[in-house]
Amino acid sequence: MTRRLGMWVSLVAAAALFSACGKQEGGQQAAAGSAPPALPVGVVTVQPGEVPLMAELPGRLEALRTAQVRARVAGILQKRLFTEGADVKAGQPLFQIDAATYQATVESAQATLARAEANLAQTTALVQRYEPLQAAKAISPQEFLNAQVSQRAAQADVAAAKAALQTARINLGYASVTAPISGRIGRALVTEGALVGQGEVTQLALIQQVHPLYVNFTQSATEVLKLRQALQAGALKKAGANAAEVRVVLDDGREYPLPGRLLFADLSVDSTSGQVSLRAELPNPQGLLLPGMYVRVRLEQAQVDGGVLLPQQAVTRGAQADTVLVVAQDGSVAPRPVKLGGARGNQWVVLGGLQAGEQVMVDGFQKFMMAGGKGPVKAVPWQAPPVSAGMGGGAGAEGVDSASAASAASAPAPAAPSPAAAASR
Predict the structure, then answer these.
(1) Is the N or C terminus of the chain more exposed, i.e. has fewer CB atoms within 10 Å?
(2) Within 10 Å of residue 238's Cβ, how many Cβ atoms?
(3) How far, in Å, CA of 230 to CA of 302, rounded?
(4) What is the pLDDT of residues 388-411, one digit of tens each?
């Protein structure tokens, strides 16, 4: 009986000790839960400097030169002598029209010229024979005058025959249709066997010079006026040496690697749209760009002294104000209104509202809001994602959070202490 009572006392003591250990561990876990670890967020440090103010405007590409290939004489089209879509040189044969009738016309004109030249030779010989007779008064003055008139008429006939022969040769040359300019030719608009040039100048193909290209774009006259007023007031500085340089952004968001050159800005405003027309010249050595494509044109118009460049994802646009989240040294986060001055690529130009050295949150918004939108947070330098990586290529705070979460998820869970181990404690 005494032995059984002792066993019960031992079990009760072990249970009490296990309960005390459990309460101590629970208290430690509760204490740990009351102070969650700081969330890592990606930040950029504000560094004011001289920032170019860019205007991004819609534009359209246009061929530098365009030439319509047309049939200048009538006839049956016999051959097409080029590859559709290929580059051609000025003077290169493109089409061949049946030239049999024009060759016959040339030969007829040559015969007419020969007859006229023979008549001229005869009348010239007659004048030469009459000259000494006229001097000796052996013939009347009227006969000598008639011989001179016949000679001059023969000379006129020779000139007319030469002109007719030249015209016939020109028409014969038109039977071979050549390229008027160098460039890229499109598809053939007629097929072999078609009658062309009969009563009208038939268009056969189109040639466009695509290197370089024109970029035509417009800017609001109101924006131009605001820019000039800001420059006069001293709020902005004039653009530097690259003021006449333009950049083109394609439909997929990529920037064309070769810069363009601004040619002119129109002096008048379009009365129907209120826009000012501008034109730039863009090199296209590889032929990647095509006439008629719509692009975005980036044009440097002024420079901001003390401006700040921020990734667009760091700025929250609103109807009343544009704001960013500023991370303090103690890890607290506070919203801050800022003044934007336009976009430069995927960045905003900030004109005011931030001080040098301040840290602005760029990444980690989702987890920060899931945590209640309260600090503290841990500032991690944000790295811009590689261009080729797309949207998922960033290695910012979200990537840090994901790696930490994955490591915590993959780690084995701690085993619960056994009663024997608890009793031994």
Answers:
(1) N
(2) 9
(3) 10
(4) 433 333 333 343 343 333 333 333
The encoded tokens of residue 165 equal 């022969």
C-alpha R_g of the chain: 45
pLDDT in tens, 221-271: 887 777 676 656 665 555 555 557 788 988 888 889 998 888 877 778 888
pTM score of the predicted model: 0.60
The CA-CA-CA angle for residues 329, 333, 337, to 5°, reads 110
Domains with residue ranges and CATH for the chain: 44-62+211-405 (2.40.30.170), 77-97+176-201 (2.40.50.100), 99-174 (1.10.287)
What's residue 186's pLDDT? 92
How far apart are alpha carbons 360 and 47 in whole angstroms?
11
**Three-state DSSP class for residue 12:** helix
Least confident of 19-23, 101-105, 307-311: 19-23
Tokens of 358: 């301040």
Q: Concatenate the DSSP letters of all residues of 368-424 into one string.
A: HHHTTS---EEEEE--PPPGGGGGG---SHHHHHHHHHHHHHHSPPPPPPPHHHHHH
**What is the pLDDT at residue 241?**
57
Residues in a beta bridge with 165? none
Alpha-carbon gap, residue 56 to 145, rounded angstroms: 83
Gap between the Cα atoms of 422 and 425, Å rounded: 5
Token code pair at residue 263: 């040619």
Sheet with 176-178, edge to edge strand ranges: 176-178, 93-97, 75-80, 195-196
